[in-house]
């Protein structure tokens, strides 16, 4: 590990300004766990990719995620691709419930409050490969019937059959489908033609969970893919396709089309499933606001990774991942949006969580702690 002068504090006057901005942004962020009035937190099942993977990649494949991952909150690597808590961690804490254990983690895990099926790198397509969305749903079905079976015999700490109907089912996937399509060399037109197939898989997943008794769904759209330092560093001729924020226009345009389709699907399912609650959350708008107005939230270098290699402007090199030989990491007191070029820092995740909890970006405007009742 090395600390580069690239991350040293600016002159005192500028540093003081950034410090005050950071303090101001922290004051605007609610104390998510402590302020919650939730007395009966719901059981939660989560499906997704690395944005909500709380250790599944490490548990399932033994993939090494080394320190400084986890340095900010856990003080050790926990299998999360961040320096600390993920968005899902903050949302769980807002309900006074334990952080979700990865479904594949057999050591020291508790599944009394649900399970996390999200695995880094997951996509919706192709199907039937680890750990595509439909595989995660199949894992959930196995978990449901096995847990209910054991609970019926008196085994404690497991979820009984009658509890699955009141559970909250969270879905956050699709980013890798779009990103991988661009990475394979597909044109923008080819990528957007692929989007309906991705959306169909998400719709099918919701339908399957509904058929298993699920009635409460919390669906995140995908973020501004074109603002990730990884994409900015790797895409050829990127300067010809940048918007006013410095992000890749075509990537963000594809993400927006995906999000519009996901919104329509949630609206349609809401009409079909009269007894279900399906909340669509515009995470794209929240994350783009954090990037576009980074100084407002006390962040600097919103398009540069905290942990990586290569230095400005993006500090990302494909051959040098965070935690592996050759990486550099910013000071712990620094305020970066991006942790490793793809995933957010705990500081950024906390801002995103606070905005989600405000209901300003939810359709319908249903409070997250509604599911406590």
Gross morphology is globular
Number of strands: 8
Residue-averaged pLDDT, rounded? 91
Helix content: 25-40%
Question: How would you write the strand order of the largest sheet?
Answer: 2-1-3-4-5-8
Distance between the termini: 47 Å
Gyration radius, to the nearest Å? 20 Å
Signal peptide: 1-35
GO molecular function, one term: hydrolase activity, acting on ester bonds
Protein name: GDSL-like Lipase/Acylhydrolase superfamily protein
Keywords: Glycoprotein, Hydrolase, Signal
Overview of the molecule:
The chain has helices at 12-28, 56-61, 87-94, 133-152, 175-183, 188-211, 229-234, 249-272, 283-292, 346-357, and strands at residues 44-48, 114-116, 168-172, 216-220, 277-281, 307-308, 328-329, 362-363. It has ten helices and eight strands. Strands 2-1-3-4-5-8 form a six-stranded mixed beta sheet, covered by helices on one side. It has 373 residues and is of the alpha/beta class.
Question: Any descriptors?
Answer:
373 residues; six-stranded mixed sheet; two-stranded antiparallel ribbon; disordered N terminus
What's the structural blueprint in terms of helices and strands?
Elements: H1 12-28, E1 44-48, H2 56-61, H3 87-94, E2 114-116, H4 133-152, E3 168-172, H5 175-183, H6 188-211, E4 216-220, H7 229-234, H8 249-272, E5 277-281, H9 283-292, E6 307-308, E7 328-329, H10 346-357, E8 362-363
Parallel strand pairs: 1-2, 1-3, 3-4, 4-5
Antiparallel strand pairs: 5-8, 6-7
Summarize the structure.
InterPro entries: GDSL (IPR001087), SGNH_hydro_sf (IPR036514), SGNH_plant_lipase-like (IPR035669). Helices cover 36% and strands 8% of the residues. By secondary structure, the chain is of the alpha/beta class.
């Amino acid at each position: 590990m090395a600390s580069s002068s690239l991350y040293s504090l600016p002159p005192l006057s500028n540093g003081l300004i950034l410090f005050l901005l950071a303090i101001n942004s922290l004051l605007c962020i609610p104390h998510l766990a402590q302020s919650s009035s939730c007395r009966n937190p719901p059981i939660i099942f989560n499906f997704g990719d690395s944005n909500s993977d709380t250790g599944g990649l490490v548990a399932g494949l033994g993939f090494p995620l080394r320190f400084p991952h986890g340095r900010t909150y856990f003080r050790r690597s926990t299998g999360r691709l961040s320096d600390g808590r993920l968005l899902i961690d903050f949302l769980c804490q807002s309900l006074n419930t334990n952080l979700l254990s990865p479904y594949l983690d057999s050591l020291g895990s508790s599944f009394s409050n649900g399970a996390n099926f999200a695995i880094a790198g997951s996509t919706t397509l192709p199907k039937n490969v680890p750990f595509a969305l439909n595989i995660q749903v199949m894992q959930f079905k196995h978990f449901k019937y096995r847990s209910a079976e054991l609970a019926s015999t008196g085994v404690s700490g497991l979820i009984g059959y009658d509890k699955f109907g009141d559970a909250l089912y969270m879905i956050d996937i699709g980013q890798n489908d779009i990103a991988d399509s661009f990475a394979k060399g597909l044109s923008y037109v080819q990528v957007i033609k692929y989007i309906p197939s991705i959306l169909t898989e998400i719709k099918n997943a919701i339908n399957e969970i509904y058929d298993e008794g699920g009635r409460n769904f919390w669906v995140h759209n995908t973020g501004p893919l074109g603002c990730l330092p990884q994409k900015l560093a790797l895409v050829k001729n990127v300067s010809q396709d940048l918007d006013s924020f410095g992000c890749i226009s075509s990537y963000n345009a594809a993400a927006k089309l995906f999000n519009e389709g996901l919104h329509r699907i949630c609206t349609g399912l809401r009409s079909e499933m009269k007894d279900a609650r399906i909340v669509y959350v515009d995470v794209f708008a929240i994350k783009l606001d954090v990037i576009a107005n980074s100084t407002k939230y006390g962040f600097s270098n919103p398009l540069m990774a905290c942990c990586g290699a290569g230095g400005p402007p993006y500090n990302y090199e494909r051959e040098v991942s965070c935690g592996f030989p050759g990486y550099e990491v910013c000071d712990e007191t620094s305020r970066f949006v991006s942790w490793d070029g793809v995933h957010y820092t705990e500081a950024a995740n906390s801002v995103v969580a606070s905005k989600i909890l405000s209901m300003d970006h939810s359709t319908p405007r249903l409070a997250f702690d509604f599911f406590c009742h």
